[in-house]
Amino acid sequence: MQKPVHFLIFGCLLAVLLTACAASAAPQAAATSAPAQPAVELTPLPTFTALASDSTAASTSAPSSIPTTAPATAAPPTAALSAATAIPTRAAGPAVVLDQIHMLNAHDGWGWAAQQGALSQLLRTGDGGQTWTDVSPKPGSGSAYNYYGSFFLDGQTAWLTYFDSTANNGGLLYTKDGGQNWSNLPPNQYLQNARVQFSSATDGVAETADMGAGQAHLTYYQTQDAGNTWKVVAISAPNPEDGMPAGTLHLCNICGDQLYYDPARVIIAQGDMANDPVGVVRISVSADLGKTWTNLQLALPAKYAGGSVAPMQPVFFGQTGLLPVNIIKYDQKNALTFSALVVYVSQDGGQTWQPAPGELENPLSQINNVQILSAKDVFVVCGKNLCASNDGAQTWKTLSGSLNFDQSTGAADAVTMFNFIDPQNGWAVSGQSGATTLWQSQDGGATWAKMSPTLNK
Q1: What pLDDT, on a 0 to 100 scale, did the predictor assign at position 268?
Q2: Is pLDDT of 425 > 50?
Q3: End-to-end Cα, the chain, rounded Å
Q4: Helix, strand, coil share of the chain (percent; to 5)
Q5: Whole-angstrom Cα distance, residue 101 to residue 93?
Q6: What's the CA gap between 118 and 97, in Å, rounded?
Q7: pLDDT for 336-378, tens place per residue?
Q8: Sign of the C-alpha dihedral computed for residues 205, 67, 152 and 37 taken in this order
Q9: For 79-123, how does the pLDDT look when each residue is reduced to its tens digit (9 = 90+)?
Q10: What is the pLDDT of residue 116?
Q11: What residues does 430 pair with on adjacent strands?
């Protein structure tokens, strides 16, 4: 029996966005025996059921995943600005309204101001978000840049995606001095809809997606020269299709399928949001770019038998991986029976998985906003509140703070994105574009203080 189709709306960096993602998928992505990686927000592609925040917007935000979310194997480092490269202290100027914020540490971060005209204003902070400096590329260096698909490696190094409608191609703008100067990297037709994630100043991955008729065709490209040249990642599909370009994998977009890539592994997690549930989470794993695949079926907790699954991108910290999965069930009248988030955990790089005991039930039909900071620390939007786990989803606590995190009602004061850099320190943006408010928490989201950001003169 066919059941109603329910679309996923995932907010981001490939790895999960490939940055395990951010970046996550990639973007949605992470590496073997690597040091603990920085916060990854699951932010799958917005058109995908949504690589991540980048980084940011949907956060994804899942941890944004491509794209929060990136080759996820080595989530990029979050280098603090040194004294030699710190933003100069200037007199505070007018108030600035931010739509997006991506903090790298307690001091340094990047943000996007509310859009003025055709372009967004790119900003940088060196004092935790109190004051911001306009570092937008100057006219003529790629006028169609935007935050979608862009990536910030540290306080100095960033890539902005752009699309040139006249030439009908896309490319990247690149800075290595905190936005004081931008260079135009060679245009590349594959980058016009890409989400990029870099694990170093030279090594990165771009995820491209061709969407249509409920289907998605994803291809990954890699660079080893900071984005000057790219070559396709030759991933072989588990079920090859005639006429499919090399390296392209076909997913069911409307079902909620997710694809994750990093140099150590490729993972396809299948959703069943467009057809009858199959009673398990189906995963295909390859450690050799698709030459061989292992198919896994992960059992659902007994209390959620009969539910449909909507997986997010996994996030890896060395060999430890976390895979958040929505499990949702509707009755014959299309009323929600239950909605739960179950986090499956792998200790062997994705070869085997077990559900963590801390099942998180939710009043929302789907949990779309997850940020995974480490193998232990996870933040999730649960209704109007945030929920947090500091033991790898073994247990959860509800943070009944002063902010409204539920975007489903369209409330004017709803939080549109949040960004934690560690279990205690986080930022959030609430309100509608052009009239947003920036908040900061220093106690893990229990309380929030309103900020009054200004633009440096």
Answers
A1: 97
A2: yes
A3: 63
A4: 0, 40, 60
A5: 19
A6: 16
A7: 899 999 999 999 999 999 999 999 988 666 677 899 999 999 9
A8: negative
A9: 333 333 344 555 568 999 999 999 999 999 999 997 665 567 899
A10: 60
A11: 415, 437
Q: How far is CA 287 from the centre of its chain?
A: 23
Strand partners, 124: 110, 133
Locate the domains of the chain by residue range. 40-78+88-456
Going by their DSSP bridges, the two strands 415-420 and 397-399 should be labelled as unpaired
Q: Which residues contact 213 (CB under 8 A, 6 or more apart)?
A: none
Centroid of chain to Cα 209: 15
State the residue for tokens 């109007």: 384
What is the helix (H) or strand (E) element at residue 296, kind and residue range?
strand 294-299
Q: Is the pLDDT of residue 21 over 70?
A: no
DSSP 98-150: EEEEEESSSS-EEEEEEEETTEEEEEEESSTTSEEEE-PPPTTS-TTEEEEEE
Separation in Å, CA 7 to CA 84, 275, 370: 48, 12, 17
Residue 265 corresponds to which tokens in the numbers above?
């592994």
- The CA-atom distances, in angstroms, between 136 and each of 113, 158, 368 are 10, 12, 30
Strand segments, DSSP code E, in 126-203 are 131-134, 145-152, 158-164, 169-175, 183-184, 195-198
CATH 2.130.10.120, applies to 40-78+88-456: yes
User: Do residues 34 and 11 touch, judged by C-beta distance below 8 A?
Assistant: no
Do 70 and 21 contact (CB within 8 A), yes or no? yes
Q: Report d(CA 162, CA 114) in Å as an integer.
A: 18
Strands 231-232 and 119-125 turn out to be unpaired
List residues bridging with 398 in a β-sheet: 387
φ/ψ region of 331 (left if φ > 0, alpha if ψ in -120 to 50, else beta) reads: beta
Classify residue 127 by burial, with Cβ atoms within 10 Å: 0-12, 13-18, 19+: middle
42, 370 Cβ separation under 8 angstroms: yes
CB 68 within 8 A of CB 11: yes
Distance, CA of 139 to CA of 161 (rounded, Å): 15
